[in-house]
Amino acid sequence: MRITKVKKELSYEQQALIHEIFFCVARSPDGVTRWQRNKHNPILSPTKDAWDGDACYKPTVMWEPENNRWLLWYNGRHAAPEYIGMAIHEGYDLGFES
């Protein structure tokens, strides 16, 4: 997990079943207390019958200001082997309510 320099936001993994892991995002005014989960969680989950169909895990998130987008790298697998994927979210807004 990485807390950005711009705001106190983080991505985290959540596990529903032993082989189903997905990503969520939360924010805090101070990075320590009063965490608010995003209403759009999970923001990334396994894609049925795809390379990441069993699990998405080990997220790394980076804000790319010069292109006004979030980059998220993650590991995924469907049985074996494990691969690294990237998801892109255009714009800074992650959909949190005020």
What does this 3D model show about the protein?
The chain is mainly β. The chain has one domain. It is 0% helix and 48% strand. It has no helices and six strands. It has strands at residues 9-17, 20-27, 36-37, 55-64, 69-77, 82-90. The strands form two sheets. Strands 1-2-3 form a three-stranded antiparallel beta sheet, with no helix packed on it. Strands 4-5-6 form a three-stranded antiparallel beta sheet, with no helix packed on it. The radius of gyration is 14 Å and the shape is globular.
Q: What would a concise description of this structure say?
A:
The chain is mainly β. Helices cover 0% and strands 48% of the residues.
N-to-C span: 23 Å
Helix/strand order, N-terminal first? EEEEEE
As a percent range, the share of strand residues is: over 45%
What general outline do the C-alpha atoms trace?
globular
Specify the number of helices: 0
Number of domains: 1
Percent of residues in helices: under 10%
Strands, count = 6
Helix and strand content put the structural class at: mainly beta
Largest sheet: 3 strands, antiparallel
List key phrases describing it.
98 residues; globular; 3-stranded antiparallel beta sheet; single chain; disordered N terminus; mainly beta
Write the layout of secondary structure elements.
Blueprint: E1 9-17, E2 20-27, E3 36-37, E4 55-64, E5 69-77, E6 82-90
